[in-house]
Amino acid sequence: MCLATTSAYADCPQPPCVKLTNLTIPLAGIEVGQTARIQITGAAPNSPVTFTCTSPPGGGACGTDGTIQYPAGSTDGVGTFIQDYPENSSNVGEYTEVWYVNGAQVNFDNYSNYVDSAPQLPIFQIYQTQPAGNNCPTYLTAPPPQCGDTLQLHKWIWQPVTYVGSSSLVQPPDVDAAATEWNNVQSPRNELRRWWAI
């Protein structure tokens, strides 16, 4: 296991930045009935926000012309823009979105590859609502897929935690303590390797 302090909530690499999140189930793909959020930070205050949006013909709610900039609103007095989008079945499909403030493209502030189930810009998907277990994050599945089965066996194995990051959200001593605690609990000397039936 590799824990990165910047993996779940990465700092904006170079402001202004835009992040796509799933408010209903954080760090998961977006399904019908859930709410997606676009958040721009570090932009010029009180400035117009626009976006381009494309989707394949017959899939998604956008057209195929990626040059049209749609108005979305304006940043607030500190340069932040937040807009929530409840998703319905007419939105199912793949999208490519690029966001702009004052006509200049905003940098993507995506989750790291350690959080592979989280939506990413510029390309993301809105899925049909899946029965419980069918839209599992890829880190929970292994060939053959086990999600959706009535019985799943997962092996609890020792994997030391390592991390890198420069986040101001968590202080390094707190991360060190959490990593040390995890590694101590996970140590093969503690014989915590078990098979779990879920």
List the helices and strands and how they pair.
Elements: E1 17-22, E2 30-31, E3 35-41, E4 48-54, E5 70-74, E6 81-86, E7 93-101, E8 104-105, E9 107-108, E10 123-127, E11 153-155, H1 172-186, E12 195-197
Parallel strand pairs: 1-9, 2-10
Antiparallel strand pairs: 1-3, 3-6, 4-5, 4-7, 7-8, 7-10, 11-12
Radius of gyration: 20 Å
Distance between the termini: 20 Å
Approximately how much helix is present in the residues? Answer: under 10%
Query: How many strand units?
Result: 12
* H and E order: EEEEEEEEEEEHE
**From the 3D coordinates, which CATH architecture of the largest domain would you assign?**
Sandwich
CATH class of the largest domain: Mainly Beta
Can you walk me through this structure?
8% of the residues lie in helices and 29% in strands. By secondary structure, it is mainly beta. It has 2 domains: 17-135, Macroglobulin (MG2) domain (Immunoglobulin-like); 140-197, no CATH class. Strands 2, 4, 5, 7, 8 and 10 form a 6-stranded mixed beta sheet that branches. It has a 4-stranded mixed beta sheet with strand order 6-3-1-9, with no helix packed on it. Strand 7 (93-101) and strand 8 form a beta hairpin. The radius of gyration is 20 Å and the shape is globular.
